[in-house]
Amino acid sequence: TFIYGGRVVGEAQVQSLDCRLVAEPSGSQCGMEQVVFPKPDPREPTQRLLSQIERGVLVASNSRGLFVQRLCPIPVSWNAPQAPPGPGPHLLPSNECVELFRTTYFCRDLARYFQGLGPPPKFQVTLNFWEESPSPSHT
């Protein structure tokens, strides 16, 4: 789900385990599915932000979990079940693979939930793309 300024502007579903989030489609990605950000109104601040996403973000999933790698120069923060303790934002390092969701933790927490020993497990991952330095009021 794509949210610009607190408003849902689009949704996409992928058919493969790996994809690349990009601002513009590229013909050079052999076999990797591309998810293109919806086009904002030209007057929106999001337009400037998308122009900086060029190489995008790689997203990969497998039986171990969900992994992302930031290739674009702009800051990207994340929130997910495996987020480090403490207040965010938690920034993705550049060109480094980060595990955002671990299947074994989810299955463990799901089993605990079914036994009445805990809350339902968290499963949602959120990526926030920032224009400049992250501040809670400007995603």
Automatic annotation (TrEMBL):
GO terms for biological process: immune system process. Signal peptide: none annotated. The keyword Phosphoprotein applies. Keywords: Phosphoprotein. One of its GO terms (molecular function) is RNA polymerase II cis-regulatory region sequence-specific DNA binding. The keyword Signal does not apply. Pfam families: IRF-3 (PF10401). Residues 1-138 form the Interferon regulatory factor-3 domain. InterPro entries: Interferon_reg_factor-3, SMAD-like_dom_sf, SMAD_FHA_dom_sf. GO terms for cellular component: nucleus. This is Interferon regulatory factor 9.
